[in-house]
Fold each of these.
Amino acid sequence: MTKLLMRALAGETLPTPPIWMMRQAGRYLPEYRATREKAGDFLSLCYTPELAAEVTLQPIRRFGFDAAILFADILLVPQALGADLWFVKGEGPRLSTIDGQADFDKLGPVDEIHETLGPIYETVSILSRELPEDVPLIGFAGAPWTVATYMIAGRGTPDQGPAHALKAENRELFAALIDRITEATIEYLSRQVAAGAECVKIFDSWAGSLQGHDFDEFCIGPIARIIAELKERHPGIPVIAFPREAGDRYIGFHKATGADCVALDNSVSAEWAAKYVQVDGCVQGNMDPRHMVTGGQALVDEAQAITRALRGGPHIFNLGHGITPDADPDNVAKMIEAVRSA
Ligand code: CP3
């Protein structure tokens, strides 16, 4: 198999890890900004298959990454369930909020999400035709907890306070919301796989704010359910799970969820992850995205240190979170060169 990413996901230890980058299609690239301008706004770009496929391909052409990630957003699922969604320039996403039962009751049924999400499956099928032979396509969705934090608060929050408050006040309603998102996510990812995604990633960006039993119930539980159902429907489909800032809960995360690969944020060291997480399977990560802004020898040293620390087992090189708009594209090329020559 020539696809390095698929080999690492299957548990193979490789001399050079496959490389891709969270938010690799994004505002740090002039060609992305030009296509986005043409689309009008971010959501139009997501829902125009030819343009979404184009921005997915741009970083592959420019840098020769070993994987492409579908251009879309985790907040399209709430929108497909009937939430209002819009983006405020320079601030981020806004959604209608969920304060109680009445708001929950306004959400639509899971089997109607495809009416909204159809263009996303079309993007996937364009990409599965147009990507180079050796570059697999990663589909994705948000994990139910992270998606719920945006649906409840109606925006990103520093501490996910509104979601924690609803969980404390009405655990039954909160659990029903998590279930609805879980079921929608299974259908959404399953369609992405049917359309040609060769791997999927589940982003639990706010996993680190769940503790103890809540982490088991609302991070591990829904992710394990999504993975089990996907693997039942699409035997062998590899899954990457990203419980960002999970800390010591990264330990055992492969086994607890059935994920083939666990993505690491940059708050844990690669040496620690080699010892406690990579023993259970493939890991992905985990360079601090700030190096893509600051560059220099520190970038080269850090990229090589991570590559070497995780060389004893299956590893996919990535950042610990998304590349930021102020990053320098030359630093991306420098990172790839550093990893491949480590
Ligand atoms: O990684 C990729 O290149 C694929 C596309 C992708 C986007 N968002 C495009 C995007 C992926 C995988 C995501 C995931 C996503 N979206 C997450 C999970 C990962 C993470 O970053 O923690 C979350 C929490 C979101 C929700 C979201 N979308 C926020 C909070 C924002 C605003 C913040 C920001 O960076 O602007 C977005 C907007 C967004 N999603 C952009 C892109 C390229 C920027 C939009 C623009 O062009 O203005």
Note: DSSP finds 16 helices and nine strands in the chain.
Amino acid sequence: MRTDTGQVFKLEDYRPSDYLIPLTELSFRLSPDATEVKAVLTIERRDGVATTAPLVLDGDGLLLKKLEIDGTPLAQSTYTVTPDRLEIAHPPEAKRFKLTIETEVAPVHNEALMGLYLSNGVYCTQCEAEGFRRITYFLDRPDILSVYTVRVEAPKAEAPQLLSNGNPLERGEMADGWHYAVWHDPFPKPSYLFALVAGSLGIVNDRFVTRSGREVELGIYVEHGKEKLADYAMDALKRSMKWDEDVFGCEYDLDVFNIVAVSDFNMGAMENKGLNVFNDKYVLADAETATDADFANIEAIIAHEYFHNWTGNRITCRDWFQLCLKEGLTVFRDHEFSADQRSRPVKRIAEVRTLRAHQFPEDQGPLAHPVRPRRYREINNFYTATVYEKGSEVVRMIRTVLGPEAFRAGMDLYLKRHDGEAATIEDFLKAFEDASGRDLSQFALWYHQAGTPNLTVSSAYNAAAREFTIEIEQSVPPTPSESRKRLMHIPLAFGLVGADGRDMVYESVEGATVDDGVIHVRKRRHSIRFSGIAERPALSLNRGFSAPITLSVEQKTEDRIFLSGHDSDPVARWQAFNTLLTEALIAASRQIRGGKRPVFSDRLSALAGQIACDDALEQAYRALALALPGEADIAREIGNDIDPDAIFAAREALAKRIAEENGPSLRDLYERLRDNGEFSPDAAGAGRRALRNALLDYLALLTDGASLAADHFRLAANMTDRAAALTVLAHRHSGTPQATGALASFESRYANDPLVMDKWFLVQASVPGAQTVETVRRLTSHRGFSMSNPNRVRALVGTFANANQTGFHRADGEGYRFFGEMVLEAERRNPQLAARLATAMRSWRSLEAGRRDKARATLLAISGTEGLSTDLRDIVERMLA
Ligand code: PHE
Ligand code: ZN
């Protein structure tokens, strides 16, 4: 583990390196505790660089065995080496020379899961962002593009499959039962895209013919016996390849495309050129073991990594400050793909919910940073919701601002102009400016300025003048190290909804540029006047969630109710109802905190019942509408002095009220939605299950709810229904024989399937209430749990901290104390995992005083620990700052 040096990396310090590495030849002799790595690097001095410039290569915990230049060993006095750095003071004067480096690494002891490590006996690598330097000394930065040839040697019995990037060149037998394979990747790539996999794996094969006729061999490698579980992923891959040709004109460029599923992985998956490595959670699925959400995630992540082949690999990032160049853009692309494969509005609402749940708290707390940060201490800590999700929203806004044709022209230009290069956000924006002739300089602030902009909106109707006026004021709240903000360009999609539910047509508008249903907010204040308006409209704002902002709108409850039933934009329609629910829940939680009983209007529960039973609406949409705002969402809306217990009680009371007011009709619908036996993971099937399970959640609050949920569990024919019933039982009927029985039956059925057991850990870690911290502590000794597997840690400890407001924020601070211990425990093996886990405390300052003090004490205890990793120290110190 690297301990913190306090070094801060700054965007403005970027400078091209003195040397380039046009060719990289690697050979690996694999062994668990002493893998020999030989790197032959063709080094080239950049034009104009003095021959006296030293060559400084990055390392991380390396052991140097041998060093040669052009075949001659280097004298000890001519270089300096530490595990983290190799400096050759006087490289040869020739422009080009060959540097041979031999290092030795121990994959079996690599618990950080960066560099070369072993997962379930399979050798695999993870190099993004700075893992390659844990394999050999290198210019480990994304603007060094090199053509790789890789030879892998291993005992044939242990590792019949030997994989690396690019196309297979050659393979053969060696002495003593060893064999080898050689791979060549013709596309110059940065070191973070290097990958190697060797092991004994089951293989699923298929084929894809690209639009220009290239035949591509597709392979998905999984644990033996799990081949069937890769069918869905393979199907998603082929659909992704086709979609990228159709929608972005991007065609695949190698003869093979391989995906390997491993069980120990820090993130979701990795886009290594021609050899994607996946967390197996995002590959393996069937009806018995995966929920509809799992299927949707697999589809999205398979697409995401595949799409990186162009946005990330063919065009990569100049430096890590530009991470959003590949990530924000690729998330946007995978969102569009999923929207095309499933229901566009439902997908969009789900995106909005995710953005609010993950990115808003980040942007509104101590970890806020611009989509393109200017500083970092540890780049691993910048794989954030802001870079990914807000980064995607920014790309979406470019499309909204330019329109779909100019957007596509800009993309085409970007892909053509920068193919084979390491680019910047400026390059990206310039392509859109050049293709459209538009000026995006104010828009560019979305990349440079942190914080969630807010629009305060009010409106008035003047019947005599037939005019409707909207007053808009923008503000961007201060964020760490950015106290003063500049005015942004916010594309605000809107509609003036008439009594018949149709959008009203206006004669003219003044006060802002308004085109194609979008108000372009660019100034601090706009007073926008629409003329020729015959009646008072209901104002629908931020349709399609056109901008990632918060809105403070003065709006009549009447209008919100009307929009909940009639807005033609499904996202705004969902939002109108969700806002009604949120307002009611905030009021109720205040009442509860004041010692009163919460009061809800009859109309709200009636509206919930209507939406549930409105067959004109998509089932998945109805399920989303029925899901009450989460406790964390409500807390975020309240903003400060948060009492999680009051919020929980308010939410329970409203759920109960909705269930009681609509019992018979919800029950009737629940019966009608019964399974017809056939399972299909597509949007229609998933929508039906989502709605039925949302109904179960309400019905479980009524008399006999526990036995209804127990029947649902017993009769479930797929994991979606089974997991939903298990959650309802464990959360709403904790401790009953039905809940205990279901947990036991689930455990015995899936004891040998770690990915499914994660669901079992997750359900228990999220049981509301003060006692859960004890349950979770006990489960850390369960035989299925392991502190060194990131999926296990996230399922149990991560869920407890992120998805259990009443348990984690227990008033006596025990939740935080336990969590602090777990973070430190994880950190000893895997700093990246620990740092990510720790971000669960990012909103600690918004808690009420008692909890806030206890949370601070835990953060101080972590930061007071000696020898912390850069990863964890960076996160904890920023949270405390
Ligand atoms: N680049 C990966 C993705 O988003 C994420 C990742 C980052 C994976 C760092 C591993 C390590 O597709
Ligand atoms: Zn990505």
Note: The chain has a mean pLDDT of 98.
Amino acid sequence: MAHVQRMSTTMLRTLRDDPADAETASHRLLVRAGYVRRTSAGVWTWLPLGKKVLDNVIRVVREEMDAIGGQEVLLPALLPKEPYETSGRWEEYGDLLFRLRDRKGAEYLLGPTHEEIFTLTVKDQCTSYKDLPVILYQIQTKYRDEARPRSGVLRGREFQMKDSYSFDTTDEGLAESYRLHRAAYARVFERLGLDHRVVSAVSGAMGGSRSEEFLAPAAAGEDTFVDCPSCDYAANTEAVTAVVASSDPSGHGPMEELDTPGTPTIESLARHLGVPASATLKNLLVKVDGEITAVGVPGDREVDLGKLGEHLAPAVVELVTAEDFTGRPDLVRGYVGPQGLKIRYIADPRVAPGTAWVTGANKPDTHARDVVCGRDFEVDDYLDVVVVEPGDPCPACGAGLEIGRAIEIGHIFQLGRKYADVFGLDVLGPQGKPVRVTMGSYGIGVSRAVAALAEQTHDGAGLCWPREVAPADVHVVAAGKAAQTELASALAERLAGAGVRVLLDDRAGVSPGVKFTDAELIGVPTILVVGRGAPDGVVELKDRRTGHREDLPVEEAVARLA
Ligand code: ATP
Ligand code: MG
Ligand code: MG
Ligand code: MG
């Protein structure tokens, strides 16, 4: 039996006005409807209704993780420095890490993601190939000192993530664990009612080979992706910037990392582009002497090209680079246009496999010289990708590509043996010899998913939750007299008795108009109004999403909802 949540006793204060700093619908509406409250930059309090929605998302994620045999654990968020030093990420993460010291001066961090600690946990617990495969997951608070925490819970500095890790002894085993996660994620987002696409993704700081993202198309998203309307080809436009060391079919020597403190800084770029220095740049694709290449911007700062683009007329942008970078103090040309990522090429099809070029190295102040297509880039995943202009041909089937903005809601990686190598994670194999373990890591932004849902489902009047995540099934509004409140209350109890989750607006001294406005804002899927018709046993049922309303006898309304 569900219980009735009474608004008269719920800590819930809706706001008429948008928060001043809110740029996105989810930010505005989640604050105005009383779901979340900002505590400090990128740090949020989940109020009673918000906590219910978050818990619903978590329940779905947990069910689907359990269904693929995931075992839930809870590792600490407060982590010792050493494992992250061993993996190199204490350095690599740069300013993104929250670092702190204990009273004795020992250094710690607040976990941004947990590959290191999970690897050590399995090393501690599993000794034989018989102990594997294993999938472990947790739902936990993560910490990242994001450069631009904004858009409410879409990008927090403290946020909730489901992260899981698979441990296998064979490559086939890893492929299967990855496949299981991919399918589980599709089911999760399906059940949550999130429109989503699976796209090829950058491996970034994680290293490793195969990686895909789950993107929720939304104008407020910070990712840009290409999508083919005629086949299943889709890729994040970030995908090109991954530099993945792999085999060397070209016969070139190893690529060389360059210290390039003289490459364009945020400030020099900003000067060139005529935008404020507070704009930041991530990976800008440029042309070096006729050849397309990429420029990483020093530091872990990211550029929102969308924002940058707003300030610019379509134009070729010229950047002066250090001699070290290009091998000649030439002009480097790049393209930035008005509609966000107007950089023309993710990769240029004219750059044939085997061509050496210069690229960002996914490390602050570093670029790589003699990067070889097909060796250092996964040609299939990245370099065959062509364009960022709508209508440009899909590399898979030739149809006109579409370009969209989206929110990254999930990310799956085949890490391979990277962390197992770093920490010496072996188990005893069937022949009694040690076998190196291979890993995958998989994340869902559960708090971000709440915001993504709000972005995709809201309308002009407020939030419109899909039933699976809504804070209640039915919002019963007692519109008017005390008698109606009594009837509404009795009805609410009956529905709850039948297992329906009910939010009851039984507030005294609040006008029906305000109650209706709040019900629309809060966004429970069905609104049941106990109003003028009540003395005759008639109530109104309203579908929040479609706006469809009908008057029904009480018994019929109950039968329909219960
Ligand atoms: P983004 O590109 O948005 O910064 P990410 O690629 O850094 O995300 P991952 O390391 O892949 O994130 O983490 C797994 C998931 O955690 C992401 O797919 C996203 O849904 C979520 N996530 C990451 N950063 C944040 C954040 N700052 N606030 C809320 N959710 C986040
Ligand atoms: Mg990030
Ligand atoms: Mg990302
Ligand atoms: Mg990611």
Note: The mean pLDDT is 78.
Amino acid sequence: WFGHVEPAAKDPILGVTEAFLADPSPDKVNVGVGAYRDDNGKPVVLECVREAERRIAGNLNMEYLPMGGSIKMIEESLKLAYGEDSELIKEKRIAAVQALSGTGACRLFADFQKRFLPDTQIYIPIPTWANHHNIWRDACVPQRTFRYYHPETRGLDFASMMDDIKNAPNGSFFLLHACAHNPTGVDPSEEQWREISYQFKVKNHFPFFDMAYQGFASGDPNRDAKAIRIFLEDGHLIGCAQSYAKNMGLYGQRVGCLSILCDDELQAVAVKSQLQQLARPMYSNPPVHGALVVSIILGDPELKSLWLKEVKGMADRIIGMRKALRENLEKLGSPLSWEHITNQIGMFCYSGMTPEQVDRLTDEFHIYMTRNGRISMAGVTTGNAGYLANAIHEVTKS
Ligand code: LMR
């Protein structure tokens, strides 16, 4: 039966973690996967999460959640994305379901798109998180791309992006990173978002926001939702994938939310029921534990402010590591400009290193990262910034 099955290619991100774990070297450094580490390189469980778990202990039954997931978690997620006092929430215009983190939310949306808008395509930025391509591919939604990043400036290629938005057929679907673009760490400015939103209006495009890093760009979740809020002010219907993997450190809990803003409540009820229908034959209903943790934290003013403090702490440590890495490279006399390390934001630095240079980092220095040159700044620590800078200098100097 299975003789024809060839081994799958290694995942370009999670495959890096596998290789890192298999390396016995004491010097090894993992700046591959986007997962936060403390300054000792250790995974972090937030204090607010620990407290939520203390409150859950002993009180949790193991019943199924509804097909659409935890109502409380969804309510809190919508406030976070659409704004605490959003009229749209009061008008019940948002169809939302709990999702298996950001990936699950994107996939559910892609499946919904295929089922109910079968003639549409998805425009995906180049570059983007590698899994975005897999998600829409497996949902059988045709993909187009739009330009986003300028390799020379290591910044946004705004003019080309706008051209591609203008040249796409009216009513196209676009995947946008709400903040802290993965892998580049390059976001449009507020002014640029306004122009993008205006052009989307002109073209009647549909924006689907993947918001995997809310809080990680600026340290303030409200500020990081600015792009979405601009589109809402301009009266767009939108879709949004939220994840609590990064901003609450709930990676393995797979907790997130998919929301779709509709014209009215009636439409929202119908859309939600169809999202649930998509979930039912796939995983029936989502897991309960992480959803409860999120509900408790966001539903309790004290725990929520502790969470906000902790997100800011993570964002600030990363900003500190950007400075440290850049300073170390400059001290070594690197002839290249490393300004983009501190200009880019969020969890990643898109270093500009070639796949061959990355291979050398891995082979000669036991430094593990994705071959597109992306450095997960969350894996940089006071202890390894110098080692990392030295290795980067060695492979880039000639
Ligand atoms: C990443 O980009 O490293 C993260 O989003 C983890 C993943 O699932 O790829």
Note: The pocket of (2S)-2-hydroxybutanedioic acid is lined by residues 13, 33-34, 129, 131, 182 (CB under 6 Å).
